[in-house]
Every structure is written in C-alpha cells, then in structure tokens.
Amino acid sequence: MELDLSPKLPQKAYGGNGGAYYAWCPKELPMLREGNIGAAKLALQKNGLGLPRYSDSAKVAYVLQGSGVAGIVLPEQEEKVLPIKEGDAIALPFGVVTWWYNKEDTELVVLFLGDTSKAHKAGSFTDFFLTGSNGIFTGFSTEFVSRAWDLDESVVKTLVGKQSGNGIVKLDAGFKMPEPKDEHRHGMALNCLEAPLDVDIKNGGRVVVLNTKNLPLVGEVGLGADLVRLDGSAMCSPGFSCDSALQVTYIVRGSGRVQVVGVDGKRVLETTIKAGNLFIVPRFFVVSKIGDPDGMEWFSIITTPNPIFTHLAGRTSAWKALSPEVLQASFNVAPDVEQQFRSKRTADAIFFPPPN
Asked: Where is the Cupin type-1 domain positioned along the sequence (predicted)?
C-alpha cells in the first residue's frame, strides 16, 4: 500500500477558556507512525496555563506566535523559568517537566515535533500531567499520597480535587506567576529569527540550522532542526537527506508548491502547501519547493542531531562532482548538451531566485 504524503492540519485534542491543544493523528498522516514522529501544537489565550507535565517523547518546541513564559525542570535539576517569544526553539529531552504560560493579549502558539520511537503509541505524544483532573495525584489513593508527601488526608483531598481543569486552565487576571529570567535561556533556547544565518542567498532564501553547536541539548533529544525562509517565487534546490534521516516540515507562513520524488523516479507528492500544513519526506526521497509570490517559511526537524543533505542542483551538487564522461553516458547525450548542463547553476547555493 502506498503511503499518503499529502500535507495535513491538526485536530483539536482538548481545551477550554485558557486555550487548546492540537495534534496530528497517525490515521490522518500515516508517515507519523511509519517514521515514529509526533507533532502537536499548544495555543494559549491570555492568562492561559499549560499545566505541568512530562512526555513519553523527546521533542523540539518552536514558538510560532506570541510571547510568554516556559517553566522547564530537567531531571535532578532546579526549575528554569524562561521568557519565550516568536522564533524560539527549545530542546526538550526525555524526563523534562514543562509548563507554559501566556500573560499577553496575543495568543501564544508553540509547535512540538519529536521522536516517538519509545512512546506508548507510535506517531503520537502521550503527556503525563502532574496535576489537574487527569493528573497523577488522581490515580493514587489518599493513603499513598498522604504517606508519600507526609500530609494530612484533608490536605490531600484538597490537592487532588481542587483543580478541576484538564491540561490547560485559565488563571485569574491578578494571579502572579514566576518572573522569567533571561539568564535561564542560556543553553536552553535559541531564537531562529535572531541567530546567525547558516545560508543567506539574495532574493533566494535564508536558513538557520539547530545542531549540537548552537543548542547542545538537541544532542540529548536526538534531533536536528532548521528554520527556512524562502523569498517570493524562489526555489529550494532538489535534495535529500543522505544519512537516512526523515524530514518533518511545518509551514509557518506563506504558501508554495512542493514535489517529492521517491523510488524508481516516481513523483509521490505534488501539491500546494500553506501555513499550518505538516508533511513528512521519507528517507532518501528527493524534495524541492517553490514559493508563491509572497514567499514561504517553514520549520523542520530532522531525525538526527547533525543532519547531512545532498543537493542535486548548484555548484556543490552531486551532478557537478561527476566527470563529464559519466554524465554523457548516463544521460546518453552529446558533449555539448553535457557542457550546457554543467555550466548552469554555478553558484554555491541551495536557493535559486525567480527567473528574470
């Protein structure tokens, strides 16, 4: 059976006045299960709090919109309270406890992409909440909670039953949450909109790559990531991951066209992609994108912390590395055709501006 690679939107999993949590379902996007990838979004309204939780999957979080506060507790460490804003990428290894809070009028939206190879359900994140109507306290008897935390049973009943919210709650306007500290961002978050560019092509596009050098925690997560901004009508060179990694792409803004070519030269995907879409490129498949006139921006994770890509156009492409005789024989063309093929796209670039 052929895999459905078409881009998909997420479905609402739960929510209320404080916000909502959305997830991509493996039934809708089978490559999630095949690739052991999870994808979800948290959208918090003003004064919305994402209750403390840990997950069965290592993830990379990316702030799509707004600003707010993230609380992060790494195993056996003290809480870090980070100010977060649009463009921030945060690596979340196994065992990390997080909470998320929005104190601003603008909706705070955070994307989560991660590895579900050790998760309860392939292709889906399972969060374990520390509190709330589905928190771990509710599963233990009053006796166990009382003895574990040395509390009177009356206090235990209050702790277990007082919070009726599930996953996301809305706090009173006057409630004071911990103040974030800029120094807590060090080593925990990288703003992809402000970071030095790894690629910058005039009228083509720009790339910021997350790896173990600029965000060491991605090594613990086991994922790499990048933010790509493609200029209007520009093209991203056809290429593939040459280290067997999957590429999971979320369209942040704009729109464009994408083609994916797989085994036996078969085009397995040709469609228009737009903001909010998620799609997955299988291992070794070749992908290329062309932005619409207003351009396109996407955030991707790659299932290795230091990914390597091979591009098939441009000066450093695999084609340019092959000898002329091999190209002539492979294409079954005359030397002048091979020379014309080789002489084009001589720049060291992965983005190509629109034709004049």
From this structure: 3-157, 195-339
